[in-house]
Write a structure and sequence with these properties.
The protein contains 15 helices and 19 strands. It is of the alpha/beta class. It is rod-shaped, with a radius of gyration of 49 Å.
């Protein structure tokens, strides 16, 4: 038995064709009514199974023409449709000469049973639809027109419903896009943001028109641009569907904005990349909070170190002070002994001339020994002073304890602590301290820490010991503030780095162990003392740090 299939849907046609072949039928297939009619005339099938909604010629017209052909009109015609399912559709199909009207979907086993029934009915010479009383062409045309018109009207309503739903969906998307709390941008294949929402524009400080003339690397931090571009190139090449990263944007006013960026690739129906959607969540405040938390952790670690240093220094002070006291006492006793012996030794020298005392002549010993003893005594006193300063600097102290502080004393104490570094770094140290400078309200230990940091930075900036360091204090009568100046003739700070010198963990000395905390902590301490800190620098000429503090009045 030969069956002709008319079906425009490719997968459905192939499935039915193979299933019928498996049942032993010979199958001829066509994708529309016109081709199916031509095949029917050439192959004379034993049955036709036809869809209704097809291009070029639909199933109704195909059936009408088949039944109008004297050579083909007895071929059983089975309508098989998923679109025309109304009673009027079935009525028209049967009036045109259809044998059966089968609605999709249907179990394949049931369809095979129907095909067998149609063949049996046809072979039993029962009345064929072609032998039924003819309906007039005018009547059939009217039924056909009404059926098609009804179907078109239904389709128009469906399309209108879809159009309204699409409009509503587009409006919802537009409202979501325009009112989203995070920045959204549609980026073309060149990286140009062709459409941006207000949140994205506000985050970067650019208008939509300004952004439309840029590519995303134009407003990306230079350090983050290469990574972002590498990911974007993989995206538009179709090597990945999305990527996510934390990056820094540069606002129009130069401010840095941290964002959590997610970029997704949008493809067309053929799977070809069309554009990308980027969603940027502003995480600047979170980043700042993380930096503050990290700084606090580092400060706690530093505080713990200072406590440990205080304990260590206290123990060392005891161990150093005991032998140092012996040195100081012994030196004084030797000086007293020498003073008592000198008249006797001088008399012997006058009567007998110069003589050896061990490997030295008495005349040399008489000249040099008092100076040597004075040097030992001064060195011992300096040891005692340094140990005392270390104990005072590292002593655990309430950071909120405020009282009258002499800035000159803080600078003197700091110079004592770093005197070894200063002496190694420069031969030109200039100190001008205003002895009449009014006291300020502050924390002695914290202010001394600031001075130590500034002096260390000044020394480390010097290229050689011929370069100088100047420390000066003064009172500004107009602003009624005490001023401290620390100047160095060092390498200077680059203009691009100058705005960030007090940022936590920013350092240009990481190669020599810099942590970037010294100036950050110093700046925080100065601010807590209601003071200001300013930097002026020229590359190759040096840096000046100016501190100002309100003085005590009354």
């Amino acid at each position: 038995m030969k069956i002709l299939i008319a079906e425009d849907e490719n997968d459905a046609r192939i499935f039915l064709e193979r299933r019928l072949q498996k049942e032993g039928y010979t199958v001829v297939a066509a994708a529309n009514g016109a081709d199916a009619l031509e095949n029917a005339r050439q192959t004379k099938p034993d049955m036709v199974i036809s869809d209704i909604m097809m291009p070029e010629m639909d199933g109704f017209e195909f059936c009408r023409r088949l039944k109008a052909d004297e050579d083909l009109r007895t071929i059983p015609f089975l309508f098989y449709t998923a679109t025309f399912l109304d009673r009027e559709d079935e009525k028209l199909a049967m009036e045109l000469g259809g044998e059966r009207f089968v609605a999709k979907p249907i179990e394949i086993g049931r369809l095979l049973d129907i095909i067998s029934e149609v063949f049996e009915t046809h072979q039993d010479d029962q009345v064929s639809p072609a032998d039924r009383p003819d309906k007039s062409e005018e009547n059939l045309a009217s039924m056909y027109a009404k059926t098609i018109g009804r179907k078109l009207e239904k389709k128009v309503k469906e399309l209108e419903t879809e159009r309204q739903a699409l409009q509503e969906s587009e409006e919802k998307f537009r409202l979501t896009f325009e009112n989203a709390a995070i920045g959204i941008a549609r980026v073309d294949m060149a990286g140009r943001p062709v459409q941006t929402n207000p949140a994205f524009q506000q985050m970067l400080g650019y208008s939509a028109d300004e952004l439309n003339k840029m590519i995303f690397t134009d407003y990306t931090h230079p350090e983050d641009a290469p990574v972002d571009m590498a990911n974007f190139q993989k995206l538009i090449a179709g090597q990945r569907d999305n990527y996510q990263l934390e990056k820094r944007y540069l606002r129009k006013d130069g401010e840095i904005v941290w964002a959590n960026l997610t970029v997704s690739l949008i493809r067309n129906e053929a799977g070809k990349p069309q554009f990308a959607i980027g969603m940027a969540e502003d995480i600047t405040e979170r980043k700042h909070a993380e930096e503050r938390e990290k700084l606090q952790r580092e400060q706690l670690i530093q505080a713990d170190k200072m406590v440990a240093l205080g304990i260590l220094v206290a123990g060392m002070a005891h161990e150093i002070n005991n032998p140092n006291t012996a040195i100081m006492t012994g030196t004084q006793q030797i000086k007293n002994m020498w003073t008592s012996l000198m008249p006797v030794l001088d008399e012997y020298y006058e009567n007998n001339g110069d003589y050896l005392m061990g490997n030295w002549h008495y005349s040399e010993i008489r000249e040099r020994l008092p100076g040597l003893l004075d040097g030992i005594a001064d060195g011992s006193k300096r040891i005692k002073r340094i140990v005392g300063d270390l104990k005072a600097f590292s002593r655990k102290e309430d950071s909120t304890a405020m009282g009258p502080v002499s800035l000159s004393d803080s600078i003197t104490g700091a110079l004592s602590l770093v005197s070894n570094l200063v002496n190694k770094s420069t031969r030109h140290l200039s100190i001008e301290l205003d002895q009449n400078l009014p006291a300020i309200t502050g924390n002695t230990q914290q202010l001394e820490q600031v001075m130590v940091n500034l002096l260390i930075n000044a020394c480390q900036a010097l290229a050689d010991s011929q370069k100088g360091v100047q420390v000066k204090t003064a009172y500004n009568s107009r602003s009624k503030r005490a001023e401290v100046f620390v100047r160095d003739e060092g390498v200077g700070i680059k203009p691009d780095d100058l705005p960030y010198v007090t940022d936590p963990f920013f350092t240009t000395k990481r190669d020599i162990g810099g942590t970037g905390l010294g100036l950050s902590i110093s700046s925080k301490i100065v601010t807590e003392h209601k003071g200001t800190i300013e930097f002026q620098s020229a590359v190759g000429k040096g840096t000046t740090v100016k501190l100002t503090f309100p003085v005590n009045t009354g």
